[in-house]
Amino acid sequence: xxxxxxxxxxxxALRGGEARAEAAAAAVLDLIPDRPGRLLDLACGTGIVTRRxxxxxxxxxxxxxxxxxxxxxxxxxxxxxxxxRADSRRxxxxxxxxDAVISIxxxxxxxxxxxxxxxxxxxxxxxxxxxVYVTTVDKAAxxxxxxxxxxxxxxxxxxxxxxxxxxxxxxxxxHGLAPAGRSAFRGVGQGRSPRSTIADLHRGWFSQLPPGxxxxxxxxxxxxxxxxxxxxxxxxxxxxxxxRKP
Length: 246
What we know:
alpha/beta; Rossmann fold; 10 helices; 39% helix; globular
């Protein structure tokens, strides 16, 4: 997993910047009723999306929470007084505090099933009746855009998706959250090139290949043989699912 404290300085630039943030915020707001209330952006990162939510919906009192101090410092500049450091498995808020809770690119990181259950349980707990939880699902699958990169990586062993849509829906249902809609946004500037994919493969991404496994070199060689080594392929499209608390 990335060190998100160290990653904070370059996080926005490597993930589409303001264009991606605008697309993500618009997709989130499509799923949240346009009325006064409180919204929590869980794992808000640098606050680049959180700030847009607050700007577009001034009737919403928007708060952000993240665990990485480096992310919190940047988010606090964008939303002074509205960002807290918090573990998403144990939120420092009373029950029924928020009218909406969102988590963009969080659940896919929770490789421990207990952590996934805990985060969804906490999101349900802090929602008010009638509130909406919005989250990204199937993040890894979104990067399969049908390019030559996916063909070169075919057959690699992959990790089960912690944020698989069916799994997230099942956990949400256990905590009384019912499906309430779907949306999507394009990950502007996040298309992968063969060269960047080789580097990511050696960092342990996209597969369950342990360090030293000779298959890493096999897949790397396939990627290195592709044309246009530095040309990003198509941007991924990320999916959002919404759940409502009765």
